[in-house]
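G., before I forget:
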Amino acid sequence: MKDIREDIAWAKINNDVLKSLESPRKLFWVIIICALGVFGIGVGCEVYQYSTGLGVANMDNPHVWGLYIASFIFWIGMSHSGTLLSAILHLMHADWRKPIYRFAEAMTTFSLMTAGLFVAVHLGRLWQLYYALPYPNERGIWPNFQSPLLWDAMAIFTYLSSSILFLYVGMIPDLAICRDNIHTGWRKKLYTLLSLGWEGTDRLWRNFRVTYLTIACFLIPLAVSVHSIVASDFAMSQQPGWHITSFPPYFVAGALYSGCAAIITLFIILRYVFKFEEYMTLSILKKTVRLTFAISMVWTYLNLIEYATVWYSHDEVAKAVLLQKATGPYAPFWWMMNFLGSIVPLVLAFKRFQTHIPVLLTVSLLLNVGMWLERWMIVAPTFSHGYYPWTWDHDQWPSLVQWGIVFGSFGWFTLLFMVFCKVFPSVSMYEVKEMVYHRSQATKKLEATGKMATAGKGAH
Amino acid sequence: MSVTNLLENWSDFRHKHPVEDVPHDPYKWAMSIDMDACTGCNACSVACYAENNLPVVGKEKYAHGQAMHWIRIERYWPEDDREFPDQGAQFLPMMCQQCEAAPCETVCPVGATNHTADGLNSQIYNRCIGSRYCSANCPFKVRYFNWYDYPTTENVWPAEMVQQLNPDITLRSKGVMEKCTFCIQRIRAGERSVKNEGRILRDGEVQTACQQVCPTNAITFGNLIDPDSKVHQKWKAQRVELDVDEQVKDKEEGGSELRGYRILEELRPYPSVMYMERVRESAI
Amino acid sequence: MIDNDFDRRDFLKVLGWGGATVALTGCGFTSVEDGKETVVSYVEAADYVAPGISVYFNSTCAQCDAGCSISGRVREGRVLKLEGNPDSVINRGKMCGLGQAGVQHHYNPDRVREPLLRNGDKGETITWEKAYALIAEKLNGVSGDQVDFLTGTVSGHLKVLLGNYLDSLSSKNHFVYEAVSPAVQRAANLKSYGMEMPHFNINKAKVVLSFGADFLGAWISPVHFAQQYADFRKGVDGQRGVLVQVESKMTLTGANADRWLVVRPGTEGILAMGVINALGAAGLHLPANVAAAVKDYDKERVSKDTGVSTEHLVKLAAILKERTPSLVLLGSAAEGYAHGSENAAAINLLNQVLGNVGKTVEASNAVPFPQIAPATGNSSALRLANNRLADGQCKVLFTYATNPIFTAPAEMKFKDNMAKAGFKVAFAHYLDETALQADLVLPLDSALEDWGTVVAEYQPDGVQIGVQQPLMEKLHPNTRGMGDILLALIKQRRAEEYKSFDDYYAYLRTALLNNKKEFAEAGIEDDIFWNDLLSNGIINVGGNPNKLVSKVATDFQLPAPVERDKQYPFNLIPSVTASLRDGRHANQPWLQESPDPLTTIVWDSWVEIHPRKAAELGIVEGDILEVASKNGAIRVQAYLFPGIHPDAVSIPLGRGHDALGRYAKGYGVNPFQILDRVFDKETGELAMHETLVKISKVGNRVIVVKDEGPAGGQQAGRKIAVSVSSDQVDLSEEV
């Protein structure tokens, strides 16, 4: 299998990546227009919902949460893989991550921003959102620090700001390259501003490395905590089907899973749209696919643990919720979720599919559908089949407005992501160069020892 | 809930439910509902609409489960497979149980629902941002969300009908959670009026709207720590205590003469409403 | 806050007397009499208007005929809420949902506000003067016999005035029509006990056996009976009262029974005879004629006829014999057949055999002034009025407090017959179905704006006259009180006689003051008497007890249960719900949104069918069924209801308006329309339960709008609504 050529010229790397800022394939514009359209639908629905009241989303008492919260968890989950690729694999010196971590990190940032959007969309009184902020005020009123929702808000905000910082810091040397290669227009100004006068001196590189490593170390616990805290929204409640100790790791596994699946999707799209075939090689894809497969099995395991603990516990109410998921009106979605989440990834175990682009595109999309369903199946059935039988409600079906806003969020995310890739180098130039350099050095070394070995043999 | 307060009184924080060192004083509002007396006539529910400015949402919104009845009458059938319910049905008025360790209170991100010193689970409409987490965590599902802006919704309070609205209570706008308050406006008015006399409220001086209207006196409301109050006597006679999750009745083997129990007590919300079992004649 | 000019004594006086100020100024806060003021001025408010302070005025509930005394909460000149008057012996401070919704009647946006004269299909606003002149003109040249009044129950001084007006027209045609009334029972009671409405002392009974009397729901005086029921459950000496309900469709009372016995529709009388027989078998002494009358009703036959098991029959007889006194009640479910009178006679006979007469069935008091005693309604009056209209005997028709076009079976063709009358005047609150057919619609004040006196038919203790007084300023300037209208009309005829009365208020005051000595101690000043009366909201006049007799009669023949009709296999039971009754208040949104206690359905009608029958016919909840009688068909959603006999289906009354107002129009169906024209042979009452129907699926299905979730009243084993057997608890130990 072809990997990145080790003898690739650094200037070519610069050229290729910078070209992605100029002339993507036509598909790029198709995607942008579609995303704008979908986002527009979402905005329309939200305007209607904002002015009329949340009732138009067709939630009810007691089914007070719907797709907004499910999608919120989904988008938070998406964000995790960026960190996994950029920070965790960075610490583990997995050099294959280098061509793809930039867009993964961008994905993290933008999916967090999308998730944040859902917090707002979901609120009954969006205009009072600031009440949830711990701002000093003369009345001494603070938010309720006991509420997992508040922890959530804080965790997300911290994670988002750190992710943006991480993305930005990691991009500075590349921004300098852009600055030096683009000579006109607003882009020049933008890159000049953002590259902070990067000159590539040894001292700068040394400081850069330390900073980058520090943020990476800081980001990893944050990533784990943020989804654990999202899980706490449920696990800390008293509701059957939510009040489960294993939720935090389960949520984190689910998050990494959906994130990896999303990376595969975006990998394939970017590779084509920005003509990155030479950098986003199939061998990298293969590694990502294997990672995804491993995580899918971890998720499956944790999922089974969750079912088993509910099933063998003496909590009849929680068990009723589980049975309800499997047999009630949500059953099609629940079984679909299990199928897509645990069975479909088995395809990834076959070598010939690990680089098969159409299959991978389909599978990765299916996995994400499965993970989205998982979040919905966590949120909804508990409302429909909680402690109090009188209020059981099986007919709760989200309205078109609710669906519209959920679809709109995909438009919003795609829009942000594609614009980012058009404006900023989505493949890290300096790290690819590093990678190529290290590999060629290693090859040279290998060749050298090889020659010696051959020589030695010859000596015999 | 200021940060200083939070830090200084950390151990007392969330300590409002009755534990030995922090008793309620001078009031702890509670209820007792005798289901042998309740006939399911719904007069309490209508009284609540009248007293608390509850919106009539109409057929379509009711169909979507968006009704706003703070007190609802639930009708249960006997759970055996007999062809006819020949021992009748059973009616249960369900409203906010004013839990002492209320699951809704801890989860509100902005602290819009709180515990008052007199043992009520209060809801601050102005503070509510509509996250609906409180309702999500309520085991009884007695919290009602304003899915629409009912004051401006057609035919909820058309022109003349606004004149009926109780001026003691605000109208809730869209996006706000609401629920039974034990008619807090009556309690506060009562407290203020007896304050001038330098005393506290006596039993019966404040009635909730539902209690006041109930033709069979199935609902008893009062101050649980006042030994002269009916509600105190009823709880005592049934040996139901506020701050435990297993009552004497549950511990007695082979049934009990006691009828008092609290719903979903095992979750330890410590509800302030005691229900008394319906009695069915054994001789017929 | 209190300034020097504040006259504290006056303030207390006003608070103490309550209605005193109402009397002095005409209507509480502003001078309604001279019409000069329409708003409350906070700058120059009367002493007793303290912004933010509520004042309570007593009056009488007009939502049904039970005559509960109410206490209206009034603040800043607006009535906010109706509560019960604790001094009333009828409701003792309590209320039902229907009564509380009276404020929504008052504030209803769909009330008629101006006198309307028909002009083609439209109503044209005219002045009252013109309206009165028009009535005078139309009555000119019409003989008294050609003028009919069709009204609902009327009592008190309104009845007097109405009588006088009819008298002035030399008409005797006052038809008092109530679609839902215990008329058969009145006749049966008169025969058995010597009075139409004796006291039923549920609270004194140890066992209550009720044949379809929904005394907790809509029967006669439900708030009063509910309170008796509470005492009955607490029991005498700690022995809790036992309630056994016999009916084909479970009512609210049936749902509260210790034993609910489902009987084949129409066999209530047979069961009563069977119980007597079983009592005899259990050793109770039966008079010879009774023993002879019941000898054919052995338990096997009765069990076969009624569907009640012999075991329950024996148990029932045993508990009735053992626990005395008991009380046997008779309700609409037993009355509503062609043999309703016979059923009633058999059931009353059971009461007599059990020796309850004099113990739990006691003498009620006669109203000392018979002219104000209620003219109670029935449905035979409708038949008479309808026949007169059909025959063209009625030239001028007045309707008040009744909506026959909605409540009469379509088969009676009331609408067509009404058109035959030359001139139709409706005194109306809403443009209901009947008012829409009138030539002249005269808008009425709501009960919260009007003066009046109300005497209820059922008087639990002595006789209580309810005083109705305005709780606030008129909402609409051009509505008038029924009394005022009658007075104006009567002045057209007998101006001399009535010239001293400016208005109905003056008439009422004079009439009551003239009889002051009957109501109050001697020597009391007029004003003080009047103020007391208004602040109490009730007048208690003792009245002499009627003579209670126990005439054991066995001269009735119960028909054998009929074979099921092949073509129309179901009995249609039009059920009377506590909140909507005959539908006149269907435009009050609280009532529409108040779930039916048994099905929890809101805003719509439904047809109840037993789950077993539904399974046989492949019907599931929400299926739209066509319920067809010989006289019409309605389409309505199905609700599977275990508390109904498989041979019966039931549709609640009160919904299905095509007029009335925004909250009523278009919601549900009207089963009155498809009722068969079968009458009780003895009384001529419409036999409401005799209609036979067939049902068929139309094909579409809807989601039933109800409070109950898909768990359908099951608790999934969770300890939510718990019941206990009576031998487990000792109620005498309880507080």
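The mean pLDDT of chain B is 89. Chain B touches chain C through 80 residues (CB under 8 Å).

More on Monday.
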